[in-house]
TrEMBL record:
It comes from the Bacteria. This is NADH dehydrogenase subunit 6. InterPro entries: YphA_Bacsu. The keyword Acyltransferase does not apply.
């Protein structure tokens, strides 16, 4: 079923942020609220001009614009380059999947998620910039959805902007970001333990 990956990931993250995350953790309420809004808006869609747009797409676009407003001018320009790069690669994968699906060995939306995250890592390789990484990747794929839908519309095809398959792609990207953060945290924990063990051996 299209969109089921997104629903499972969103519900899992909402349970974590609501019941497991530390109460004094910064942004806990906002993350929980955003996830609940995405889940509630999942069944709805709107018509804008001659295009059909998913409600979650509009909500994600609004959140991306709000957070981008807080960046400095230089950060915005840098992120703009990243967003356009990801958008064009995302739309390119979508077009190849439609016109020559034989080339797609695995799910094209998984390929799009992997490619978008890889480009995001190239632009934002530091773990301290993880929020900017995810913001740029989401914004890039949101823009890529517009490029893809407009291109298909001009040649006589119709595609909902931000459909259920796109939400699955966003879920894949969220899981990749969380995995990267978890691996980095585990690596830092192991490094600190090894350092403390070396200190104990030297004291002996």
């Amino acid at each position: 079923m299209e969109g089921i990956i997104f629903l499972w990931v969103a519900w899992g993250l909402w349970i974590y942020t609501t019941f497991i995350m530390e109460k004094n953790e910064k942004g806990r309420f906002l993350f929980s609220f955003y996830l609940l809004c995405l889940i509630c808006l999942f069944p709805y869609r709107f018509s804008i001009l001659s295009y059909e747009v998913h409600a979650d797409y509009l909500f994600l676009a609004l959140l991306a614009l709000i957070y981008m407003r807080r960046l400095g001018l230089r950060q915005k320009l840098y992120m703009l380059i990243c967003i356009l790069t990801i958008a064009m690669s995302y739309a390119g994968v979508g077009l190849v999947a439609i016109y020559d699906p034989v080339l797609m060995i695995i799910d094209p939306y998984v390929i799009a998620a992997l490619l978008s995250m890889s480009l995001g890592f190239i632009f934002y390789s530091s773990i301290n910039k993880m929020r900017n990484l995810f913001l740029s990747v989401i914004s890039g794929t949101l823009t890529g959805e517009i490029f893809l839908s407009v291109t298909l519309h001009n040649i006589g095809f119709s595609k909902m902007i931000g459909d259920y398959l796109y939400m699955d792609t966003a879920a894949y990207m969220a899981l990749m970001t969380i995995t990267w953060k978890a691996v980095h945290s585990l690596n830092a924990l192991m490094s600190s333990k090894l350092s403390s063990n070396k200190g104990e051996i030297k004291n002996i």
